[in-house]
Structure formats: structure tokens, C-alpha cells
Amino acid sequence: MLAIRSARLFDGVADQLRPRPLVLVDGGRIADVDVTGADPPEGAELVDLGDATLLPGLIDSHAHLVLDASSDPVGHLADTSDEALLADCRARARAALAAGITTLRDLGDRRFVTLRLRQELAAHPERGPQLLVSGPPVTTPGGHCWFLGGEAAGVEGVRAAVRALAARGVDVVKVMVSGGNLTPGSVMWRSQYGPAQLRAAAEEAHRAGLAVTGHAHGAQGIAEAVAAGFDGIEHGGFLTADGVVQDPAVVDQLAARGVVVSVTAAQNRPLGQPPPGMEPGSDLARRFEQIAKLLKAGVAGVLRLRAAGVPLTMSSDAGIGPQKPHDVLPWGPRVMTSSGFSGAEALRAVTSVAADACQVGDRKGRIAPGYDADLLAVAGDPLTDANAVREVVAVFRAGHRVR
Ligand SMILES: [Zn+2]
User: Fold this and answer.
1) Is the dihedral of CA 174, 359, 401, 125 positive or negative?
2) Which residues have CB under 8 Å from 277's CB, separation 6+?
3) Ligand 1 center to residue 364 CA distance, Å?
4) What is the pLDDT of residue 9?
5) What whole-number distance in Å separates Cα of residue 389 and Cα of residue 332?
6) Which residues is 260 bridged to in the sheet?
7) Packed helices 113-123 and 82-98: angle between N→C axes, nearest 10 degrees
8) How many A from CA of 316 to the centre of ligand 1?
9) What is the C-alpha separation between 253 and 261, in angstroms, rounded?
10) Nearest by Cα to 330 from 395, 284, 276, 397
11) Rounded to the nearest whole angstrom, what is the distance from the C-alpha of residue 63 to the centroid of ligand 1?
12) 232 - beta bridge partners?
């Protein structure tokens, strides 16, 4: 048994830190959380982390291990064999874990490489986060991220695609409800499918016992996905050809049904600041400018979702560009607090709320008896200074100290 002592504890939920916790770990799980100042039980190995804050391991509910976080991730992916890709994904997973990301939901695979890695890491949890994977996202022929291999047309085609994913053993189904910025020719706010196809996707996923989440930048797509019974919305920007337009009725529906909106805004520089070395007039510059403008309007939109009571997670979309390496999630809480969220809200968005969004809220995202011993210790007080989340002191995955 391991007894982990630190100066402070954020349990994943509470608005306040608790002083001088002692977290007991047995068999990869949390056995007990003592805050009475008691000595460790006899025979337990004491790990004293000193002046650190212990928090649940972070959960990135939206990342892409197959994308390389360069300025041309799609081009590089096309040039990479599956074996090389698996090795790349392995290294990216390891980097994520070292930053304290102990659970990573991958929402964009090619040829099920992430399922192979999931199996590897299940046998060796100290080598990477717990992976939850969607496999290739379901998309229209030639639609957003078609190159990942998940093309499906029509109601029957969508049903068959979701059944095939479930048979492969994915953890969640991802559907490209609207277009996306990463795919040439795709329009971010335009819906790809119709209501009947989206209903079919949700029905088949739920029949297989899986949640379904929709990549949806567009206001129309968000409305259609909610009406179809989707469990989550990725990005959730409510974009139209005329900017951000939120239909209050749709926002109310999201809140009433508890549909989680995954705000993919974690990045390693302030929102709207261009990447270093970006050449004016380049493809990257054009793409960046478009995103930066939408992000600004998006922040106001996200604050309205918060006011309406829509559950929000902070995630990364890691891999899609240089500002989003695979260990970028710890920057996310700072993005939130600089946008008007409290420190506790920002930490919940990468722990307990993210766990619930990934359907693992019964064993991840909280420091409580029975939960997986996935832990992050950081210097300072991450509740009052979100930058502290990046001051890593220690990382534990399933009870193994990995840093
Ligand atoms: Zn994505």
C-alpha cells in the first residue's frame, strides 16, 4: 500500500482545497482519503510530496494521437505507415501522461491504430494515459476528415458504419455532424448529414451501449445532433455564415438533457496570438486568422452556455496544429480563468466533468475511495493560479509513479 501525503488536495469537485491529505493507494485504486492528519497505516510506503497540491489526473476528452501537431498534420499523416504511426502515437501518449493527463479520449483514428495502442497501454498503464477511443469518425463521403476512413452515406450506411465500429470495440462513436477547418473544401458551419442519419447514428450507438458525440461547429448541426439524442457536442461554436448565433431553445435543450459541450480551446499560447514564425499570407496564416476570429466570438458563446447551465469540459483537440501538442491540456484551465471562469470550474472541466463526459465518472476525475489512483501533484495552488497546473511535481497512473 502507498500513502501519498501532500500540502493540499483538490478532490475534483469541491470549491475549496483540503489541507494535508493522506491518500492511500492499493492495487491501482484509491483505498482511502484521510484529512484528519493521521499517520500512514503500518506497513504503507509513505510518499511525501511536500508543498504540493494533489489533484485527480487530468482528462483530455478530445485529442488526436494520429495527428502530429505540425503545421501540416494531414499531409504528414498521409505519408506515414500504420506501423510508424503506432510508434508516433505511443510517444505522444507518453508525453501526455508526463504532463499529468492520465485519461485521453481520442476522437479521430486511422485504421484503428489507437485501438492497438489502447491494448498495449492497458497491459502497461505506466506507459501512457488510459485511452478511450472512437476509431475513425463517421463522416459523409468526401466530408470532414474523410481521409481517416470513416465515410458513410445514407441512413443504412450510417447504421452499418456505427455497428462496424461497435464490433471493433470502440469506447465511443464520433460523428462529423458539421464541416471542419482541417479539411480542404469543408465548411465549418455547414451540416454534413440530415436529421434521419443523425438519429440512426444515435440509435445504433445506444443500442450497442455506446455514447455518441458529434463534431459540430455549426449552429444547425448542434441543433440537429441534440434533437437526434447525441450525448456530447465537440467544439460547440454555434457558427453560421454570419458568425456565432445561439438559439436559446437549443441551449436550453443542451442544459436540460445534460449534453456536455467539449470546448476544444486548450492551447499553449493566449487565444488569438499567432504561432511563432508564421509567414503572412501563408495557408497557415489564413487558417489561423479564421480560427482566431471565431475563437473570440466563441468565448462569449461559451459564457452564455455556462450561464444556461450546460456542462462544459475543457479539451485540447491536440495534434491539429503547433499550438496544440499532445501534452497541451494543462494550459486549458488558464484559458478558462482568463475567460471569466472560476479556478474550481476550470479544474472541474479537466477532471470530474470531463470524466462524466467520457462516461468514466464512476472511476476517474475524482480523488475518492474506489476511484483509479490516477493522480497529479503540482506546485502551488491551482485554484487561485491556473498556471500552477503546469508545475508538475509528480504523476501517478493506476498507482504507479511515472514522474
Ligand atoms: Zn478534433
Assistant:
1) negative
2) none
3) 22
4) 98
5) 9
6) 232
7) 50
8) 8
9) 12
10) 395
11) 6
12) 213, 260
| Ligand 1 centroid distance, CA of 215 (Å) | 7
C-alpha to C-alpha distance for 264 and 328, rounded to whole angstroms? 11
Chain segment 307-348, per-residue pLDDT in tens: 999 999 999 999 999 999 999 999 999 999 999 999 999 999
Going from the Cα of 123 to the center of ligand 1, the distance in angstroms, rounded, reads: 27
Residues with CB under 5 Å of ion ligand 1 are 317
Tell me the C-alpha distance between 44 and 2, whole Å.
Answer: 5
Q: What are phi and psi of 106, to 5 degrees?
A: -95, 125
Which triple of cell numbers denotes residue 76?
504528414
Give distance in angstroms: CA of 400 to centre of ligand 1: 30
Q: What global pTM score does this model have?
A: 0.95
pLDDT given at position 334: 95
pLDDT-flagged residues of the chain (< 70): none
What pairing do the DSSP bridges indicate for beta strands 101-106 and 400-401?
unpaired
Length of the chain: 403
Distance (Å) from CA 1 to ligand 1 centroid: 39
Helices (H) and strands (E) in the chain, counts: 11, 19
3-class SS of residue 392: strand
Q: Provide the pLDDT for residue 376.
A: 98
Closest CA to 178 of 194, 164, 202: 194
